[in-house]
Fold this protein.
Amino acid sequence: MKELLDQFIYFMEVERGVSGNTIQSYRRDLVKFAGYINRVHKDISAVDREVILDFLMLLKDSGLATTTVARNLAVLKTFWKFLVSEQLVSENIAAIVETPKTWKNIPDVMSSKEVESLLNAPSGKGWMGTRDKAILELMYATGVRASEASSLKKADVNLDSGFIKCFGKGGKERIIPLGGAAKKAIAKYIERSREKLRRNTSDKHLFLSRFGKKLSRQSLWKIIHRYAALAGIKKKVTPHTLRHSFATHLLEGGAELRGVQEMLGHADISSTQVYTHINKERLKRVHSQFHPRG
């Protein structure tokens, strides 16, 4: 492998005129791959698509960004193209491996019990607890993004009909049901806390800061992080974790994919389909845990 690597580097540097930085990157990535195939006792002629996929998954599991994994694959494809051109191997097996840029990351999701703990974490006493309870209930009930929750106006919430009007990416409007728990929490916040927070301002946003102004997206992140810690949830919880949990729990409950797509505001249903993978992973865990032959 070392001899082949040296031949490839010479070819890229001398005949193709590739820059020094790129050559260093090629060498670094290929040395890493060479070390891997040595550990799995594979000669270069015995390397197949599965070996390359296992190597890429190892890189991904080590915490490397998808773009870095994709770069490693690009180097392997170039290397195998060289091997074929030099008649050192008969087939470019790296060419048929899909780029990791197309891989879908399965997002973190809370269990129903964890969500319940999070939603019950704010104290009902005082304006802060009332407001924060309303925020958490609304975000889990609707799956809105932090920026969308921050931008909601009071007029966008119709408690009588139980819907909110949300403006997502590109200003696209969608209507999302609230549900009983969120309606109750928001009504309590509006009745007891919002007018006190408004002070003398004319801000029309639903959620206000202690200064009577629109609550920022960053503040929403901090609120969720604080209550996740209070609830004793060990995993990282962000506004998107609530969004992911909203979608996953709907699908687990039997909701149709198209309906979840509409509520999330996804233009492409493939963005919503990632949540079906979560269900499959959950089913595999259940099967492994409880099936006699699992």
Notes: The chain is about 60% helix and 5% strand. The two ends are 40 Å apart (CA to CA). The chain has a mean pLDDT of 85.
